[in-house]
Amino acid sequence: MTQNPSRTHVADEVASLRQRVAELEVLGEQYRQRAEEERRLRLEQDTAFRRQHGLVRLLQSVATAANEAPSVAAALRIGLDRVCEHTGWPVGHAYVVEKSRLGRLVPSGSWHFDDVERFAAFRRESESVSFERGLGLPGQVLDRKEPVWVEDLSAQLHLPNATEAVKSGLRVGFAFPVFVRDEVVAVLEFFTPKAIPRDDEFLEVARHVGTQLGRVIERKHAEDALRLTRMQQQALSRRLLEIQELERSRIARELHDQIGQALTAVKLNFEATAQAHATHLRKEDVAESIALIDHAIEQVRTLSFELRPALLDDLGLAVAVGSYSKRVAAKAGLELRLAITRIDPIRKEVETACFRILQEALTNVVRHASASILEIELHEAEGVLELTVRDDGVGFRTESRRHTKPAQEQLGLLGMRERAQNVGGVFRAESRRGEGTVIRARLPLRASQRLERRVVAR
Description:
The chain has twelve helices and twelve strands. It is of the alpha+beta class. α1 (5-67) runs parallel beside α6, α6 (200-276) runs antiparallel to α7 and α6 packs across α12.
């Protein structure tokens, strides 16, 4: 039986179409697999990028926040908080190396908790123990000087605080060192209840976090040492000034009580002798000798007053400031404008500091200002003693002060500032060339009070 040619052709076409469909299905599957592989690669790349970006942000946030921390303890807390926020781990704790024993870690009191009550027993246990080099998670970090990851805390139940950690539901922990130069000064440890495998990439980042914290701690230690040195220097300066004032008082008393009285007695004796032997002595010689003695007596009184005016001890600061200012203005030919309010009895050191600042300020006016008007204000306001000395002299350019002002005048300004700071006060100098100078000192009346320290010159 002969086949129909048209049917044969149709069958061939159908077979050919089926083959093409099968080929297209294979190509479609290949494309689908390729697209899926590309999507997976993009997802992995995106995940890796986000992870890397997160790690970089962790380093940046730790560095930025820790640099602004006011203390070492605050810097450690910032490190704990930032790492826990990044990882999602609920517990973080910092140990510090004991200063007296470099191979021992003790609790710092710095923690991070997502749930304080849940981990309260673990905290109590951790704060009651210390770790020797090589013991426990922090001790291993101290010994190896590198991050350590523990995947199963239940395998270390023989170690301190591990039992309480497991009881609290914690399963995994890691810790990393904080370095200052090449020495470990602290160890930060973290815990989670999740079963998380070791992450070497994150541990490397944690190492850098420890380095960042170490730099901050080193700087804080340097700042503390500098602050202590400054406090010691200020204490020494205060003591030297106290000794200087005592010595000045002693010399002033001796000048007034002994030399001054001796000169007065000589003068009286000379006058009596001159009257008794008037016929044998030339009046001119006698008058000249008495004038010399009067001059010597006046010099002794002036020196005694400069060293330590009796008015300051006997009648108080307001009277002493007024008397001294009038004396200086009269001698220098200055027009004096005084504005002094009643001052209640104040601390001896504040009283002395204020008077010495006034002395130095008036010395500068007389020696350098070429002024004609001198204004002095002294008053008390809200527990602060305020002294203002103003002149209409030549002034000076503050931007070039160090190069144009005489060395003695620079030392005078520094001395006034130090006097003010030693009693917790502040000093301010304002001047412009040809516009005179204003000196201001604000001194706290309470011993526990300290004003903001600054020196402003303009």
